[in-house]
């Protein structure tokens, strides 16, 4: 019997369906591309969970596909701060309770914590997110990821489209 991680318990408690997948952590290099290859998915489907910090000290989570980079201006406008930076690894652990590489995008956020999901990911059939332990992945539909993480859907990667979904 595989052990239940807090992310699994959270999804079970909310009755959100998901699939657990495991890959060999010792032989899989860190990164979304490596996880996608190990599990047989497209790199876009493996979600990077990034933690940013504003000058005011707010920390936010940003989720993009493994092959995506957020446009800085879009990210700043979505967050509502001109001065943002990636959070240092020690602060990521302090914020999430997890090391960079397998941060689950749900269960650890305090009330009021903001999470953002890249708009194009809602078109994927399923997405993979870290379960909190390297080698453990959660496969979940985009709609259920939004529900579990309470994410705000925004366009972070396409310069030709508005940032906020309600502007489209």
Give the biggest sheet.
5 strands, mixed
Which CATH-level-2 architecture? Alpha-Beta Complex
Could you state the CATH homologous superfamily? YbaK/aminoacyl-tRNA synthetase-associated domain
Please identify the top-level CATH class. Answer: Alpha Beta
**Helix content, binned percent:** 10-25%
Overall 3D geometry? globular
Number of helices: 5
Strand order of the largest sheet: 4-2-3-5-8
Mean pLDDT: 96
Strand content: 15-25%
- Return residue spans where pLDDT drops below 50 for at least 5 consecutive residues: none
Structural class: alpha/beta
Give a description of the structure.
- The chain has 168 residues and is of the alpha/beta class.
- It has one domain: YbaK protein (Alpha-Beta Complex).
- Helix content is 24%, strand content 23%.
- It is built from 5 helices and 8 strands, in the order H-E-H-E-E-H-E-H-E-E-E-H-E.
- It has helices spanning 6-13, 32-39, 72-79, 89-96, 142-149; strands at 19-22, 47-54, 59-65, 84-86, 114-118, 127-130, 136-140, 152-154.
- A 5-stranded mixed beta sheet has the order 4-2-3-5-8. It has a 3-stranded antiparallel beta sheet with strand order 1-7-6.
- A hairpin with a 5-residue loop joins strand 6 (127-130) and strand 7.
Provide a quick synopsis of the model.
The protein has helices at residues 6-13, 32-39, 72-79, 89-96, 142-149, and strands at residues 19-22, 47-54, 59-65, 84-86, 114-118, 127-130, 136-140, 152-154. The protein is an alpha/beta fold. The chain has one domain: YbaK/aminoacyl-tRNA synthetase-associated domain (YbaK protein, Alpha-Beta Complex).
């Amino acid at each position: 019997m595989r052990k239940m991680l807090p992310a699994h318990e959270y999804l079970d408690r909310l009755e959100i369906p998901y699939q657990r997948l495991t890959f060999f952590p010792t032989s899989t290099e860190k990164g979304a591309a490596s996880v996608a290859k190990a599990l047989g998915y497209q790199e876009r489907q493996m979600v990077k969970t990034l933690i940013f910090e504003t000058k005011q000290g707010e920390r936010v989570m940003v989720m993009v596909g493994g092959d995506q980079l957020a446009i800085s201006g879009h990210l700043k406008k979505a967050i509502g701060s001109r001065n943002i930076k990636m959070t240092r690894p020690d602060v990521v652990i302090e914020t999430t309770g997890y090391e960079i590489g397998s941060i689950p995008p749900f269960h650890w956020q305090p009330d009021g914590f903001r999470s953002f999901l890249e708009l194009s990911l809602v078109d994927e059939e399923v997405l993979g997110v870290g379960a909190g332990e390297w080698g453990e992945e959660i496969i979940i539909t985009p709609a259920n990821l939004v529900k579990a993480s309470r994410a705000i859907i925004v366009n972070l990667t396409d310069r030709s489209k508005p940032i906020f979904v309600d502007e489209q």
